[in-house]
Amino acid sequence: MQDNITKTTGVLLVNLGTPDSTSTADVRKYLREFLSDPRVLDINPVVRTLLLNLVIAPFRSPKSAASYREVWMEEGSPLMVYGRQVKQSLQESLGPDFHVQLAMRYQSPSIDSALENFRKEGIDHIRVIPMFPHYASASTGSVHEKIMDIVSKWQVIPQISFLKSYHDEPGMIEAFAINGERHKPAEFDHIIFSFHGLPVRQLRKSDATGAYCQANGICCSTFNETNKNCYAAQCHDTARLLAARLEIDPGRYTISFQSRLGRDPWIRPSTQETILRLAAEGKKRVLIFCPAFVADCLETLFEVTTELKDEFVAAGGEHVELVESLNNEPKWIETLVKLAKEVV
Fold first, then answer.
1. Which of 41, 80, 210, 292 has the most CB within a 10 Å radius?
2. Domain assignment present for 174
């Protein structure tokens, strides 16, 4: 007897997460889940619990809630708004042989609910695309671990293909370049490629050989088989590729890292110290790319355009301009179609 079941591939887009609202309670709930992840806050569990309950929850949550209110859109969190747009555009581009779901590693829509939708529909192949171009244990690694933990409890485990890193994907580089060209980089005194920061200890943990990670930028000057799993090396490679595509000379750009949390050493230079240095050097106009983020969020819309901008102006600079993230850029959707079909 011939059945009418159509073979469909599930495409799971996973971003970091966002609070459900700008209330302090919702932001606190989000931060608790996010920073309870041992891959994110990879410290002694007892210390992590004390830090969350005695410092972050009572003191950071109200401040973060105020920041979210500065960037919140009428339809909700920017990360969620752009995520839904990308999901819809990708679904339309892929067609009926694919089922696209959007999930957040923390909060909603949850990875559990997205996978359950696939399971109920009998989808036997899932393509996982983390919305992080650069692999890090705290982002892509956490997404992969969560998915494996969930499906390991299913009676029938589907075929799953994980996209690990696409930091040098030509379509992604081109999409960022398209956005960057709208801002006319040649008219700025300096360009910053600012990436999400990580503690140095996490870079060293990713180096199983203990042979190459010096966390001082020297080992990131080239990208090769030895350091291909290093988050910082991937970031440096993305910046070099993007600068080459935009014909930005090495002396006109700086690679830096933002969003530091805690007192432990983080990847340097920080974006904050970079803009202060540029102001001290007499630079007046700075253009900032954030290629670690494929959708605009708190770290681009507030940290760059408000906090860093204010510091730059206070130090003698005049203008900081942000190159928007990929969001729903057509070239980005085209690239996601390619990534979704690579392993089917």
1. 292
2. no
Give bridge partners of residue 194 from the DSSP assignment. 256
pTM strictly above 0.85? yes
Residue with tokens 């291909």: 228
Q: Where are the alpha helices (DSSP H) in the chain?
A: 24-36, 45-51, 61-71, 78-94, 111-120, 142-151, 170-181, 200-206, 231-245, 271-280, 298-301, 309-314, 330-341
- Nearest in space to 173 (alpha carbons), one of 133, 135, 136: 133
Same domain, 130 and 259: no
Q: Residue 218 has what DSSP assignment? A: G
Handedness of CA 42, 44, 47, 48 (dihedral sign): positive
Domain assignment of residue 64, given as a range: 9-166+331-341
Residue 126 in any domain: the answer is yes
Between the two ends of the chain, the Cα-to-Cα distance in Å is 27
Question: For 164-202, how does the pLDDT look when each residue is reduced to its tens digit (9 = 90+)?
Answer: 999 999 999 999 999 999 999 999 999 999 999 999 989
Integer CA distances (angstroms), 224 to 172, 230, 236, in order: 20, 10, 12
For the record, the structure tokens of 65 come out as 């809630």
Q: Report angle CA 264, 268, 274 to the nearest 5 degrees.
A: 125
Q: How many CB atoms lie within 10 A of CB 342?
A: 12
Residue 221: name the closest of 209, 239, 207 by CA: 239
- Decide if 220 is inside a domain: yes
By DSSP bridging, strand 98-106 and strand 159-162 are unpaired
Are 335 and 316 members of one domain? no
Q: Is residue 74 part of a domain?
A: yes
In the chain, what percentage of residues exceed pLDDT 70? 95
Q: 126 — phi, psi (to 5°)? A: -125, 130
